[in-house]
Specification:
The structure is a single chain. The protein contains ten helices and five strands, in the order ααββαααβααββααα. The strands form two sheets. It has a three-stranded antiparallel beta sheet. Strands 1-2 form a two-stranded antiparallel sheet. The chain folds into two domains: about 80 residues, Multidrug-efflux Transporter Regulator, Chain: A, Domain 2 (Orthogonal Bundle); about 140 residues, no CATH class. The longest helix is centred in the C-terminal third of the chain and has 47 residues. A hairpin with a 2-residue loop joins strand 1 and strand 2. About 70% of the residues lie in helices and about 5% in strands. Keywords: DNA-binding. One of its GO terms (molecular function) is DNA-binding transcription factor activity. This is DNA-binding transcriptional regulator, MerR family. It comes from Aeromicrobium choanae.
């Protein structure tokens, strides 16, 4: 009689498909001890949801820039705690990402938001910047709608499309530097003591809460400081323009 309570099991082919990776990679991770051995029935191995969750975690961490060696080191040293900690931290950002989901939009509609024609080079330039993704000849996917829509609106208001294309990489570069510095300090001041203590599970909720609270605080500070610096830059530019006008007025007429 089959035990109805048994967890769903699947073969390595199904596991690889659900994890969006190759069978070869699944077996390689198994060989390295990153996932537990499957339950064997004859020569066939059967995997569970637990294996799938671990593979999705590995794939996600690799996608976020972690090396396989770093992932392997963390998981093998403390398999249960390290995996739970990583999943919790990733979930913080998944919640933020869910608030700004990708969105498919026609080229014509996107062009209308910026007041340009559907064949304008700005759309292809946004694809190159990683803000849009090609879907078909008529549609694109907005990977960051909260960036694309304001960018299109700024062009409609009067900003040159080339100016938008020029600004985006500069903003990204400086924000990456700010983010790296912020993460460095949070890692040193909040996470490292927890890691040094051996990842005690009873302390993790408090550490997680601190990190969860610091992320929106950092965002608020960046926005507030940008507004202040932007105001100063506007005042300086106005001063320069007034000086230019005054200089032109002082020139003798012919």
């Amino acid at each position: 009689m089959v035990d109805a309570r048994r967890e769903e099991e699947f073969t390595v082919d199904v596991l690889a498909e659900r994890a969006s990776m190759t069978v070869r990679n699944v077996r390689a991770y198994s060989t390295r001890g990153l996932i537990d051995p499957p339950r064997l029935e004859g020569r066939t191995g059967y995997y569970t949801q637990k294996h799938l969750q671990r593979l999705i975690l590995i794939r996600t961490l690799l996608g976020r820039g972690f090396t396989l060696a770093a992932i392997e080191d963390a998981i093998l040293k403390s398999p249960s705690t390290a995996s739970n900690v990583a999943l919790d931290l990733l979930n913080i950002f998944e919640v933020d990402d869910a608030q700004d989901p990708t969105e498919i939009i026609s080229r014509a509609e996107l062009a209308s938001l910026s007041g340009l024609g559907p064949d304008h080079k700005l759309i292809d330039q946004m694809i190159e910047l990683g803000l849009l993704e090609h879907v078909d000849d008529d549609s694109v996917r907005m990977l960051e709608p909260s960036v694309v829509r304001p960018g299109a609106a700024s062009v409609a208001i009067g900003l040159n499309p080339d100016s938008v294309v020029d600004i985006v990489p500069h903003m990204r570069e400086h924000l990456e530097q700010i983010s790296d510095r912020f993460v460095h300090h949070v890692s040193r001041d909040v996470a490292q003591p927890f890691l040094d203590a051996g990842l005690p599970q009873e302390e993790w909720p408090a550490v997680f809460e601190k990190i969860d609270q610091l992320i929106p605080i950092a965002s608020q500070v960046v926005v507030a400081m940008f507004r202040s610096v932007l105001r100063e830059a506007i005042e300086v530019e106005i001063g320069h323009k007034l000086e230019e006008l005054a200089a032109e007025g002082d020139q003798p007429s012919a």
